[in-house]
Design brief:
Elements (H helix, E strand, L loop, with lengths): L2 E6 L4 H12 L6 E7 L3 E6 L3 H7 L7 E7 L14 E2 L5 E9 L2 H10 L12 H9 L4 H11 L2 E9 L2 E9 L4 E4 L4 E4 L11 E4 L4 E5 L4 E5 L2 E3 L3 E3 L15 H7 L1 H9 L22 E6 L1 H18 L3 E5 H4 L9 E7 L5 H12 L3 E6 L5 H5 L2 E4 L12 H17 L7 H19 L2 H11 L4 E6 L4 H15 L2 E6 L17 E5 L5 H13 L4 E6 L11 E5 L7 H19 L18
Parallel strand pairs: 16-17, 16-18, 18-19, 19-20, 21-22, 21-23, 23-24, 24-25
Antiparallel strand pairs: 1-4, 1-10, 2-3, 2-4, 5-6, 6-7, 7-8, 8-12, 9-10, 9-11, 11-15, 12-13, 13-14
Helix pairs in contact: 4-5, 7-12, 7-13, 8-12, 8-15, 13-17, 14-17, 15-17
Fructose -6-phosphate (F6R) binds next to helix 8 and helix 15.
Length: 594
Amino acid sequence: MCGIVGYVGEREAQPVLINCLKRLEYRGYDSCGIALLGGSTEVYKDAVRIEALEKSLRPNDSQTGIGHTRWATHGKPSEANAHPHTDCTGKIAVVHNGVVENFLQLREQLTNEGHVFRSETDTEVIPHLIEKYYEGDLEQAVSRALVDITGSYAFIAIRADCREVVASRKDSPLIVGIGDKEYLIASDVPAVLDYTDRVVYLEDGDTVVITSASIKITRNGEQVTRAEDRIPWSVDEAQKAGYDHFMLKEIHEQPKVIRNTFAGHISALEPEIDLDMRKDIDFDNILILACGTSYHAALVGKHVIQRLTQIPVAVDIASEFNYSDTVLGNTLVIIITQSGETADCMRALKKAKELGCHTLVITNVVGSSATRIADEVLYIKAGPEISVAATKSFVAQLIMLYLLALSRASADVRSRGSLIAELRQLPNKVHEILDREVEIAEHGRYLARYESAFFVARGINFPIALEGALKVKEIAYIHAEGYPAGELKHGPFALLTPDTPVIAIVAKDNTYETLLANIKEIKARESPVIAIAEEGDDEIEKYVDFVIRVPRVDPIFSPVTATVALHLLAYYTAKERGCSIDTPRNLAKSVTVE
Ligand code: F6R
């Protein structure tokens, strides 16, 4: 979603804001803008990219300012709708992430009171409300404006003659970076990494006022203190490190990410897993909720947990659960969310808590909103994921789900020790796939010429078919559908032609023979077939056009190896098509609106 940033300190604010916006670009890139404090508030905007905005800037030595990179909700991407938005006097400027739900009503009311609006956005009501209530104290004016606003927000406000920055949050993330005689406010940790690793995570309902020398946080008018935390990520982790795209770098980081995620949880001597979770929680079944790629991890998790623990597991898309009458009993609710900020997940988490369930969040981001609400948290150790398309975080989520299932596997599951041993070997197996990058790139160039594709699999790999299709859709703009291989004949067969390639994920498990039969049916309709198949499976060569080889693993881990191959395939398909890989059109990371 939109990225927002504010700065006050002893440096020139302009380059700091531009640098922070570049780091936040993955949250939205429909338009961008900054406002700098001086005798007046100077506003610069661009309808598209930060580089263009940067070139348009005049020298300005202001040491206070705010910035925004937009993912459009209300109003199309345009210069008029780009933030910052100002009041009638042009002195107050605001950047906002979220949705002001009652903006139409507020806009009408403010218009009747004489305020003049220049954009179609919901945000613009905020500076006008602050203007209405301003009586010489920006913080007080913001507090009074907040009473009128319903919806979700993280916003930052400045006013020409006050050398301070005021910000507030409700249901949208906001952090304060603490530097040496300087403070930054931002919607996300990577924005401030170049300047500090000290942060304060604001809570819902907090308002913060920063100057170059002070920070004051209030809640319901009362001053509160919030603990300072250290960011566990380094600046280097948020750089491209010579790769063409963050996505490729993040795919290549997967062996390390897998190792980091299981490190500390697997005992060196015994085949035991310790996740440091509460042992006294009793539950009869599990419900896993997530969105997008994380939902695909949840679907794999269902197979793994049921197989190893015999605990019944259901999975739902978080946004669907939120409007359903799902009956929960003695249920453990697990939310999987890379960002820990996804609005649909946050709502699902709150609903599960209201229903009295014990909640566990699996996330990548320390201090994220979900971690503040859930009863328990498990961190995947993927490091900052900058590419909008999730890759390494997905694989890390799978690893955490394996650990969770293995930690609960009944002691008499004889294979537990050997599965743990194999889990330890996964980084090496992933390396072997990365070594085949050149070959997979060739298949990507082949796939790039088609406009429609199917991804099929059975059983534990069906979610990986969904994931392969999602990646090709979102970064290569090819219409792709993930299907259980057995379902194609119930309708989608009508779409199979020589122009509709099918990518089949073929694991050597109990689905193998039937999947081969499905592939033969597909070939009979003349669709080209690419198989992702393990080494040593010579049989598959007879039935498909191309084979992408992955190392042999226990079938329970085949989702990991297939995923790495599919992520590379999607990357090279998108590259061949000249797509904007790290920042695909219309998408943004961390979707903080419902
Ligand atoms: C796709 C992708 C998205 C996210 C989804 C959930 O590549 O990244 O589908 O998986 O928006 O995000 P989180 O996991 O942050 O809740």
